[in-house]
């Protein structure tokens, strides 16, 4: 089964890590379908705080979210991606400087780390239905999209182990010690097709073909041929398609349609 995402591309050129991160978050925001539910006053406040110089600002952002009665899951699924989209567009339109957007992107990632403990994650009781491995291949420089995917899965009761740029030997050791029902590989840069394909092949070989593997992210549409030859089971930017298609959640899921 194949579900190739849209072909929207930003000219990320020299922007490197920051451009990749904002592209991932922009795609996430576009697929959330929740922008109409955003409060503009809250969004404007969060955007202003995200680019504010100085230390301790993340605490101010958390306080602003709390005052607006925005839950951790709402922040992760809606407000953080939307702030990223605002920053990305503002940069392209010369409304924000490189320094401001760099600070903003770092703050968003810090918030994702901070909110992980507020969401259901890796429980050992009956709430955990499945286990998933989320991998950002070596050489990929974005992490925000993969972190959001991991957090959304955890919120649904899926136990998640996330690996950033692991060596193939690291994956071998991990999979020898832990059992996973599925793996999700996040790819932002289409130049990393060969690396992503190696990750997929490694996971398939180590699991003797048992583990289902999905690949998603801005770069996946341009990597179709290389990924298909790797044995990938699903190519998609729709997290719900992964959850339902791989049976990661037994009851009716309400996972937002975005990942990557």
UniProtKB/TrEMBL annotation:
Top-level taxon of origin: Bacteria
Organism: Neotabrizicola shimadae
InterPro entries registered for this protein in UniProt: Cobalamin-bd, Cobalamin-bd_sf
A GO term, aspect molecular function: metal ion binding
Name of the protein in question: Cobalamin B12-binding domain-containing protein
Pfam families noted in UniProt: B12-binding (PF02310)
Signal sequence, renumbered to the chain: none
Origin organism lineage: Bacteria, Pseudomonadati, Pseudomonadota, Alphaproteobacteria, Rhodobacterales
Residue ranges of domain B12-binding in the record: 129-249
């Amino acid at each position: 089964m194949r579900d190739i995402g849209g072909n929207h591309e930003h000219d990320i050129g020299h922007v490197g890590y920051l451009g990749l991160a904002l592209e991932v978050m922009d795609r996430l925001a576009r697929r959330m379908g929740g922008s109409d539910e955003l409060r503009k006053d809250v969004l404007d406040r969060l955007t202003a705080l995200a680019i504010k110089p100085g230390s301790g600002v993340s605490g101010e952002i958390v306080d602003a979210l709390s005052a607006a009665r925005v839950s951790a899951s709402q922040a992760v699924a809606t407000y953080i991606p939307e702030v990223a989209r605002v920053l990305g567009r503002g940069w392209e339109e010369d409304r924000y400087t490189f320094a401001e957007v760099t600070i903003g992107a770092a703050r968003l990632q810090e918030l994702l780390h901070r909110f992980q403990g507020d969401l259901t994650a890796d429980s050992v009781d009956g709430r955990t239905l499945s286990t998933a491995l989320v991998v950002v291949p070596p050489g990929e420089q974005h992490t925000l999209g993969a972190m959001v995917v991991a957090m959304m899965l955890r919120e649904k009761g899926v136990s998640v182990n996330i690996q950033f740029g692991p060596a193939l030997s690291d994956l071998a050791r991990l999979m020898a010690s832990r059992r996973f029902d599925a793996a999700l590989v996040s790819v932002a840069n289409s130049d990393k097709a060969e690396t992503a394909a190696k990750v997929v092949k490694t996971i398939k070989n180590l699991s003797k073909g048992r583990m289902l593997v999905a690949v998603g992210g801005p770069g996946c549409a341009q990597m179709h041929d290389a990924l298909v030859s790797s044995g990938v089971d699903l190519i998609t930017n729709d997290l719900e398609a992964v959850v339902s298609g791989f049976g990661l959640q037994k009851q009716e899921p309400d996972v937002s349609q975005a990942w990557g």
